[in-house]
Amino acid sequence: DTGVSQNPRHKITKRGQNVTxxxxxxxxxxxxxxxxxxxxxxxxxxxxxxxxxxxxxxRLLSDRFSAERPKGSFSTLEIQRTEQGDSAMYLxxxxxxxxxxxxxxLHFGNGTRLTVx
Amino acid sequence: SQKIEQNxxxxxxxxxxxxxxxxxxTNYSPAYLQWYRQDxxxxxxxxxxxxxxxxxxxxxxxxxxxxTTLKQSLFHITASQPADSAxxxxxxxxxxxxxxxxxxxxxxxxx
Lengths: 117, 111
Hints:
The structure holds 2 protein chains of 2 kinds.
Chain A: E1 5-7, E2 10-13, E3 19-24, E4 31-37, E5 44-50, E6 53-56, E7 65-68, E8 75-79, E9 88-95, E10 107-108, E11 112-116
Parallel strand pairs in A: 2-11
Antiparallel strand pairs in A: 1-3, 3-8, 4-5, 4-9, 5-6, 7-8, 9-10, 9-11
Chain B: E1 3-5, E2 10-14, E3 19-26, E4 32-38, E5 45-51, E6 56-59, E7 62-67, E8 72-77, E9 86-94, E10 97-101, E11 105-110
Parallel strand pairs in B: 2-11
Antiparallel strand pairs in B: 1-3, 3-8, 4-5, 4-9, 6-7, 7-8, 9-10, 9-11
């Protein structure tokens, strides 16, 4: 168990640029989640995958946000035409499937901190 | 709308005392709740899960309760230590979202 890995750890970009973040989950986990967290707030759910299927994406913040998990392993989160309001920590997590009908614990990476100038 | 709320932003307690953090849910009844710890600059780390048919769960110095009448979960840390200082988050499923998090409570244990 090498943990969830997120790259890059930090990203500074100018408004209007596109950015892409990568998440490598724990290898035996089939679920992968993206959250966003701003200062003083809890993680805000964006989307999640079971294997390569994106099960819920209605919480993505706008059509500028998209996520993929093409082979059911790593995932990418892309933000197009970034805005200053997109500045936040973007967290990825992975988990096994449900555990006796309950959500299996999420294992989080340490996030990618995005700063839009 | 369904909500998970942690109304205390911060809690300061003395070392050795018991810290009690509160999580309330409104407009629904989640089948379970999870508690996580988050240190600055790091992702949350899972601590405990409690199901609606469980009154109490323990793990070392941690205890979680689930009161479906009060629509509340309490998270206790006994014999608190400065190393317990962190933000504690509760989370529960809501609609199509597998896990919705509260805002968190920042605990400071003072030596």
